[in-house]
Structure formats: structure tokens, C-alpha cells
Amino acid sequence: MGAGQSRSSNTLVVPQASQALDQLKYEVAQELGIQIPQDGYYGFMATRDTGAIGGHITRRLVQIAEQQLAGKFTR
């Protein structure tokens, strides 16, 4: 598998979400002080770091969803 390729078989319902999730990944990593490899290969990163990035992304996505749902019900 080459650099930047993913083994994930998940398909995104909204193809444009890939770019938004990628941007979120870099923002979260920067906030945590974690350097994402330029070549896209995560094999040399500590599992703790990749897990921290994923966990924070999930928290952020849940917050966004909660805010959107709250907005729907207050209108």
C-alpha cells in the first residue's frame, strides 16, 4: 500500500466530507501539538498520538451534531 492510501473500506455518504475531515484532522493535531507525517504514512506515529487525534475528532463531531440538533428544535 502506497503513501497516503488507506486500508479503510468505509465509504463516505457525502464525498466532500473527506476534505472537511482531513482539515479537521490537521486542526486537531495542531491543537494537540502532534505532527502529522507529510507523506501520509502513520506507521511511525505513536498509537497514543493517533488515538488522541481520533478521539478529539469524534468529540468535535459530536459537539457539531449536538449544536445542529439543538438549533433544529429551538426554531
Describe the structure.
By secondary structure, the chain is an all-alpha fold. The protein has helices spanning 17-32, 47-74. It has one domain. Helix 1 crosses helix 2. The relative contact order is 0.12. It has 2 helices and no strands. Helices cover 59% and strands 0% of the residues.
Percent of residues in helical segments?
A: 55-70%
Radius of gyration: 15 Å
Anisotropy-based shape: globular
Overall pLDDT confidence: 86
Q: Specify the structural class.
A: mainly alpha
Main beta-sheet annotation: none
| Terminal-residue CA separation | 48 Å
Attribute tags:
single chain, 75 residues, mainly alpha, 59% helix, globular, DNA-binding, SASP_alpha/beta-type
